[in-house]
Write a structure and sequence with these properties.
The chain is mostly helical. Helices cover 67% and strands 3% of the residues. The chain has a two-stranded antiparallel ribbon with strand order 1-2. The longest helix is centred in the middle third of the chain and has 34 residues. The protein starts with 9 loop residues before the first helix and ends in a 10-residue tail after the last helix.
């Protein structure tokens, strides 16, 4: 019933695709949508991103989410408000901008703590995630590898947070990366450059091993700047 989402603003397109089926009568009041896992797979988006789309439509009264036996996502009306998605999506994008800002404030400081406190075991964990990325690339890169590659990227950053030696910091970074998953999904159709990602991870690890605060700051600035530039309207940049 639903098709893969292809644009950068994936939750906007996902919400619009559902709304359009209501507008055209393909979905009618009382109809039940596929389950979250199935619908996300049909659209080829993450479940957190689908939840953002559903939230937009629930807030507008187009869908309702029922709990308990017989629960699920149901069409609540045959009337879709004009400019529903455009307005609501701009609010969601503002939230994502706030997540990126929070990452900019937090992660460079986390990296500097890691440079001071990381053990050899921490460095080996970071190295293993880089090696796993490299094996994916050396084995013949294919777009189907993106999900695994992104998972390894998250593992690298969470290992960096653990290396800071502060459980509260690690908890904050885990929360941040759950929220960042939506931003990543919205940018996932920007051409991925695995070699750049591996390279910046290698340079990050080298900076941490060197323990030089200025070098850690510089490499983290480059690392974080790529995703930020994507949201400033430069989709030709590398995203990670």
């Amino acid at each position: 019933m639903f098709t893969p989402v292809q644009t950068r603003r994936t939750f906007e397109e996902a919400a619009d695709q559902i709304a359009e089926k209501v507008r055209t009568g393909e979905l009618r009041t009382g109809d039940r949508l596929p389950g979250e896992r199935s619908l996300a797979a049909q659209m080829e988006i993450s479940r957190p991103t689908l939840r953002e789309a559903v939230k937009v439509l629930v807030d507008a009264g187009v869908l309702e989410v029922r709990r308990g036996p017989g629960g699920g996502m149901y069409v609540a009306t045959d009337v879709v408000p004009t400019d529903l998605v455009r307005h609501s999506a701009s609010l969601r994008l503002a939230e994502i901008a706030a997540v990126l800002e929070a990452r900019r404030l937090l992660e460079p400081r986390v990296a500097q703590l890691a440079a001071e406190r990381a053990t050899e075991e921490d460095f080996e964990t970071l190295e293993r995630s880089i090696e796993a990325m490299r094996r994916l690339v050396d084995g013949g890169w294919h777009p189907r590898h993106e999900d695994r590659f992104l998972q390894l990227d998250v593992q690298f950053h969470l290992a960096l947070a653990r290396a800071a030696g502060n459980p509260t910091v690690e908890t904050l970074m885990r929360l941040l990366f759950r929220q960042l998953e939506i931003a990543r999904d919205m940018a996932m159709h920007v051409p991925l450059v695995p070699e750049w990602t591996i390279g910046i991870h290698e340079r990050t690890l080298a900076a941490l091993r060197g323990g030089e605060a200025d070098e850690v700051e510089a490499v983290m600035d480059e690392h974080l700047g790529q995703l930020e530039r994507t949201y400033e309207g430069e989709p030709d940049r590398v995203v990670r």
